[in-house]
Amino acid sequence: MRFTLLSRRTFIAAVLAAGAALPLTQALAAPFASERITVRTEGSGPDVVLIPGLNSSPRTWASTVAAVPGYRYHLVQVSGFAGQPAGANKEGNVAAPVAEEIARYIKEADLKGPAVIGHSMGGTIGMMLAARHPDSLSRLMVVDMFPYLGMFFAGPGATPDRVTAVADQVAAGMRAASPEQRRTNANATIAGMVDTESMRAGAVSDSMSSDADVSIRAYRELIVTNLIPELAKITVPVTVLYVQPKTVPIPAAQFDAAYRGAYSPVKALTLTRIPDSAHFIMWDQPARFQAEMKTFLNAQ
């Protein structure tokens, strides 16, 4: 059949009409672009945003995503970590601006009240998101992260100046490490954070392929950032899963009390200690973590 000028016009008109029938966001949506994060999606169903921790990648969530289908997972990768170029994270703070970018992603992707789950530094970012953009999510799960690490590094009651001084000392020590020392430190750190030996190699690989300067600045930021005063601004339900590190040999009741006190400003809080696990709960206690996650996602 000959494609005449008239038929071409008819075809174009039909295409335009079809586009006009779509929601504007669908018809005109452009790929999300950011110098601080990338996001890829897997699966279909209700939206869940997954934020990994310091020096980590979406591999943190791979086994969980496979075991808990029925959701559209938005897997965040922070620039500068796990081989991704530093982009705009090459200077200044990391966690706070990344939280802003995730808020922008949720808005531009037109997500309607997604659940957000953050591990470690991802939990800090999740708290920032919930406190500063409370309408952007429907619920938050924080996986093994305290809202003010400065209390652990400088001691309870330490002044902000003292916490800053300690954070600067920690950062200086990290900067002074040689590449060989950095690898040794990464192996030792991951061994303390992951009890499941078979999962350690991937975590070490992510750590060693992270930009050292981005990692150091992000770690320092985590130490000095006190989110406790902001927790009262969170209006959505919050679930916190936590473990007691082997390096904190205080009575369990005392450790639990510290978590309860720090998170007490949260209006709707579920606080759960996970036994027999290190920092990567999703790897060390996968069945328990997946059960907790399902309960969290299914809550009304």
Structural write-up:
With 300 residues, the protein is of the alpha/beta class. The chain contains 13 helices and seven strands. It has helices spanning 5-21, 24-28, 62-67, 95-108, 121-132, 150-154, 160-176, 179-193, 200-208, 212-224, 252-263, 281-284, 286-298; strands spanning 37-42, 47-51, 72-78, 115-119, 139-143, 238-242, 269-273. It has a seven-stranded mixed β-sheet, with helices on both faces. Strand 6 (238-242), helix 11 (252-263) and strand 7 form a beta-alpha-beta unit. Helix 4 packs across helix 5, helix 7 runs antiparallel to helix 10 (212-224) and helix 8 runs antiparallel to helix 9. 37% of the residues are buried. Mean pLDDT is 90; it is low at 1-29.
In short, what is this structure?
This protein is α/β, with parallel strands linked by helices and 300 residues long.
Question: How would you summarize the topology of this molecule?
Answer:
Blueprint: H1 5-21, H2 24-28, E1 37-42, E2 47-51, H3 62-67, E3 72-78, H4 95-108, E4 115-119, H5 121-132, E5 139-143, H6 150-154, H7 160-176, H8 179-193, H9 200-208, H10 212-224, E6 238-242, H11 252-263, E7 269-273, H12 281-284, H13 286-298
Parallel strand pairs: 2-3, 2-4, 4-5, 5-6, 6-7
Antiparallel strand pairs: 1-3
